[in-house]
Amino acid sequence: MLLFGLSALEQELLPARAPALEDSLILRVAQGDTQAFSELYLRAHKAVYGFALSIVKNQHDAEDVMQDTFLKVDAAAGSYQSKGKPMAWVLTIARNLALEKLRERRDVPLEQEEDWHLWASVDPTRAQEDKLALEAAMKCLGNEERQVVTLHALSGLKHREIAALLDMPLATVLSKYRRALLKLKNYLEEREAT
C-alpha cells in the first residue's frame, strides 16, 4: 500500500502521521485539565518538533520552539476559537515562535546539523543506516519543500491548510509537495541502486 504516493521503503523512512487533534482537547486544556494537556503533547509534539526543525534548522532551537509552543498553547488555550483545525492552530504558534527564534539569532550560522531522526518515532531496531538515509533524503529538499512534506506527512494537514499556514497559494504548495516527493523518490531509488 502506498502512503502519499511513496514506496514501502520511503514510508519506512518517513515518520508516522501525528494523531488528529480535536477542538475538545484544546478546550479541556483551557479548563486546566492536565490530562488533556498531556494527551495534546503526546499527539502533537513530533509534528511541532519536525515543523520547527524545518524552519530553524537545528536540534536545540527546535526543542526550544517545541517547549515554548506548548507553554504558549497552555496559556492561550482559553482564547482558542473552535474552527475544526486545532493542529493548524498549534502549528501556527510553532511557526511564529520559530520565526521569532530566527530573528533572535540572525548572527548565528544556519548550517548546523539537522537531526531529522529525532522527530521520527524512536525504534531501537531501526538501523542507523535508515536514520542516515532519512537525514540525507530530507536534506535534498529545499526549505519550503521540507516544510510542506513535514506538515503533510507528520501533522496530517491538508494542502489547503498548509497553504494558509505558510501563506502560499494552494497551487504552489501542491507543486512543492509533488517536487519534494519526486526528489525523495529519486534519492531513495539511487540509494537502493548502490
From TrEMBL:
GO terms for molecular function: DNA binding; sigma factor activity. Pfam families: Sigma70_r2, Sigma70_r4_2. Residues 132-184 form the RNA polymerase sigma factor 70 region 4 type domain. One of its GO terms (biological process) is DNA-templated transcription initiation. CDD domains: Sigma70_r4 (cd06171). Keywords: Sigma factor, Transcription, Transcription regulation. It comes from the Bacteria. Residues 40-106 form the RNA polymerase sigma-70 region domain. Signal peptide: none annotated. InterPro entries: RNA_pol_sigma-70-like, RNA_pol_sigma-70_dom, RNA_pol_sigma70_r2, RNA_pol_sigma70_r4_t2, RNA_pol_sigma_r2, RNA_pol_sigma_r3/r4-like, WH-like_DNA-bd_sf. Belongs to the sigma-70 factor family. ECF subfamily. NCBIfam families: sigma70-ECF. This is Sigma-70 region 2. It comes from Pseudoflavonifractor capillosus ATCC 29799.
